[in-house]
């Protein structure tokens, strides 16, 4: 255990952001549970039956629940509540900056979550090329499917099944015509960029925010943000 890092960065960073899988918290909870169990056994051995045992049993159950996923649930719930309270997330603002996008891409690559950033870039590309109200050609939508939605695709997204179903519903219009090329042309441009954006953006931002929550605790980000803040004050930021 690095006490110097704990003193510099605080217990919160040590327990939460430096430990993605909550292993440290679970180990602490297991130690507490062990102490509680030993205390209960001793009291039973001494034939002591009072409210103390009831309290210890209740605490043991609570700690066991936290070990079995309760602590992770509470952590994710707090993160979700914080996101809902902000009209526009800090991540969305930072992603407008080119240097931050590069930093985020590098960190996502190391964290094996590059697929979220790559799809974000694909959305930016589609908006830039066709406009938010522009139509996506069938061929382009198929490329998006092959890259991000098919099983074992290069950048398969980790998204809820409902979102995946909504995406594949976009293909229904393309599959309907089968009699003439005129009908094919009619159905060829029925999906807007905004349709794709609406379906996936919230889930995408949730995944990226999860990555951001760990990125902002790194020294690399802290150094970058210090420079970014100075440049912003001097109005020399290039996005």
TrEMBL record:
Keywords: Membrane, Transmembrane, Transmembrane helix. This is Predicted protein. It holds the Pfam family RGS. Coiled coil: none annotated. It comes from Naegleria gruberi (Amoeba). Residues 90-222 form the RGS domain. The chain crosses the membrane at residues 21-46, 58-78. InterPro entries: RGS, RGS_sf, RGS_subdomain_2.
């Amino acid at each position: 255990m690095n006490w110097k890092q704990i003193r510099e960065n605080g217990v919160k960073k040590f327990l939460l952001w430096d430990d993605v899988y909550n292993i440290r918290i679970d180990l602490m909870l297991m130690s507490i549970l062990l102490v509680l169990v030993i205390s209960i056994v001793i009291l039973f051995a001494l034939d002591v039956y009072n409210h103390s045992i009831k309290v210890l049993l209740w605490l043991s159950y609570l700690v066991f629940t936290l070990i079995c996923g309760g602590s992770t649930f509470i952590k994710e719930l707090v993160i979700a509540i914080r996101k809902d309270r902000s009209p526009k997330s800090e991540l969305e603002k930072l992603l407008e900056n080119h240097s931050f996008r590069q930093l985020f891409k590098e960190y996502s690559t190391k964290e094996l979550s590059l697929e979220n950033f790559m799809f974000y870039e694909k959305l930016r590309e589609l908006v830039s090329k066709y406009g938010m109200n522009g139509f996506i050609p069938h061929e382009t939508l198929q490329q998006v499917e092959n890259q991000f939605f098919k099983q074992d695709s290069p950048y398969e997204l980790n998204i809820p099944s409902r979102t995946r179903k909504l995406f594949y519903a976009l293909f229904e219009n393309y599959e309907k015509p089968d009699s003439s090329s005129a009908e094919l042309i009619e159905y060829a441009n029925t999906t807007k960029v905004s349709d794709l954006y609406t379906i996936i953006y919230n889930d995408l931002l949730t995944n990226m925010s999860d990555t951001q929550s760990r990125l902002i605790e790194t020294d690399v980000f802290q150094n970058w943000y210090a420079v970014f803040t100075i440049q912003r004050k001097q109005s020399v930021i290039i996005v």
